[in-house]
Amino acid sequence: MQRINRRLAWMVLGALLLMTGFWLVFTVYRAGHYWLALGGLTLLGVSGWVFTSPRAYAWRYLYPGVVAMLVFVLFPALYTARIGFTNYSSTNLLTFSRATAYLLDQTYSSGGDPLQLSLYAHGKNYQLRLSNEAGQVWQSADVKLDGAKKQTVTLHEASVAPVGDRASFREVIAQQAALKALTLYLPGSNEPYRLVSLSGFAPVSPLYRQAADGRLTNLKTGEVLRPNFETGFYETAAGEQIAPGFRVNVGWSNFERLFGSAELQAPLLSVFIWTVLFAALTVLFTFSVGFVLATVLSWEALRFKTAYRVLLFLPYAVPGFISILIFRGLFNENFGEINMVLNGLFGISPNWFSDPLLAKMMLLIVNTWLGYPYMMLLCLGLIKSIPSDLYEASAINGASAWTNLTRITLPLIAKPIMPLLIASFAFNFNNFVLISLLTDGRPDFTDSVVPAGTTDILVSYTYRIAFQDSGQNFGLAAAISTLIFILVAVLSLINLRLSRVNAPEKK
């Protein structure tokens, strides 16, 4: 009986999850994302088969990890790469159909008599009362003002006063979105009235008319707009681009801009070189400091080793973003404690945030502070794993401490720690948090057409192009992100290769 109840509970849970999944797929489909809906439906079908079919029993343990990798790693990477081949930006956000629908929805006042609006609350609904300068009055039946939902309302001549209290001007302003969605018709007239001011309706006409070949004609000026699928805009005969633009495929244009545009090459090359130097120097400094401290802490005659280890581990225990913000205050050029000490001792106050070289030095100092405890722990474990017999034999032969360091310790920990050093390089290659919180990539280049700073690394440079540039060029940022992904993937393959080489051979 207990087994039946448990199976029934699992069946009910599975049915609820399945219904929730179908509801989400249907929501995505209604939003117009047909390929995502198809992918979600396929995922639901495969999930149902894996968790119900006896043949797929072994896959039940691997399936969640595989799905997570596909959804959270592969899909974002492919989607980002796909955007890199488009002109997606703040001026080209919409699809072609949505941009066309937006233009066709534009209207202009045809010059008829304006009508002044009064709203009367009637329970949860409203009655609209409109009047012109001649004193004629029209009103509607009860209307539910439902957000931006489009509604058509036919008015009738007012014979009695509306029921309910007249809404204040503040209430009328609060209902602006719903009033803008209304299309009113006077009795016996086919001329639509739309909201043209805070409380005024006027007759309007569509601004554009679409021809069979896709051209749009401006009914007010007579201009003809043609869609240009190379630039992603409707354009006039004179070449004037009409907003909003739409997304189009541009092929390899974004990648060609990265490697062929002199305006982009200069900051991109500087940022790339600094990214490599920043990641390499961080690994060098953190490993050097961590190794030296680990060597000292491994000295058997050292007293209070446990206390030293706890104190030296503290920078790693504190959340990184808190430490970075603290250092930002310490390095403040006017009120920071570091400049106060330097000024008191040597009479200098370095411009840490405005001088490019000092800003880079500050980043390396802070990142070394944040990263050395990790390297120290790794080196401590590796040093402890070295057989003590080697050091005893070295002491018998009269070897110095330097000989022990260079001939025993370093060679024996080099191979095991190399994959971890490469992983640390890859992490710092994309260390967005440090750059964003400490310098935000500044000081900026003065001759760059895109936002770029002397302390930007590739990932922060990409972020600024995508979200801080006046054009917000998502396509160009996606192209750079694709290159970063390829570089990190290559580093990961090298890391796996080294890990395989360093793995012990099976006898």
From TrEMBL:
Annotated source species: Pseudogulbenkiania ferrooxidans 2002
Summary of the function given for this chain in its UniProt record: Part of the ABC transporter complex MalEFGK involved in maltose/maltodextrin import. Probably responsible for the translocation of the substrate across the membrane.
Entry's Gene Ontology cellular component terms: maltose transport complex
Annotated membrane topology: Multi-pass membrane protein
Protein name: Maltose/maltodextrin transport system permease protein
GO molecular function: ABC-type maltose transporter activity; lyase activity
Coiled coil: none
GO biological process: maltodextrin transmembrane transport
Bilayer-crossing regions: 7-26, 32-52, 61-79, 271-298, 310-331, 361-383, 417-438, 474-498
